[in-house]
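Hello K.,

You asked for the raw outputs rather than the summary table, so here they are, unedited. I folded two proteins back to back in the same session to keep the settings identical. This is the first:
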Amino acid sequence: LLEVLVCPVTRGPLHYDRAAGELISKKARLAYPVREGVPIMLAEEARELSDAEAK
């Protein structure tokens, strides 16, 4: 499923952070939550990445 998901803001690729339970878009500097195995692909649900996380 990850291969077909893209960031809804940038349409760029996502990286799954299993430890945090998030899909990461470095280009948008956003982390989308994954709740009970379901990615929540809404910009308003995403958290902003810190400068260190965005690298």
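The second followed immediately with the same parameters:
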Amino acid sequence: MEKQLYQWALEAQQKAYAPYSHFRVGVCLQASNGEYFSGCNIENASYGLTLCAEAIALGCMVMQGPHRIQAVAIVSDADDFCPPCGGYRQRLSEFANPDTVFFLFNQAGQQKKISMQALFPFPFNKNFLGDV
């Protein structure tokens, strides 16, 4: 599983549009039904309009129907491991379980494995909304 996730995240990273930062990110999500969804970052000259790789992959997954994430691979140009930013930890937590596995890969292909729970221990979730 993690080799396939890595390969597809790496392929997505190579398609990234990052002419300003030159920081390419690729993501591959494995849904609970076994399907894979990948995405890359797409920069914009107006930085606030940049789309993160996680956004593309998550949107693809939701559009196809599966709504639970089993595993995630993130590949970046960084020397260190690059986790999702705080905003995307929150967004991903909507579709992940505490034991959802994240495989973070640096540019050398080294891997770090971490759970959603360890990555984002206190997400805001539906329990805070009461009867809405």
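The two ends are 38 Å apart (CA to CA).

Happy to rerun anything if the numbers look odd on your end.

Regards,
P.
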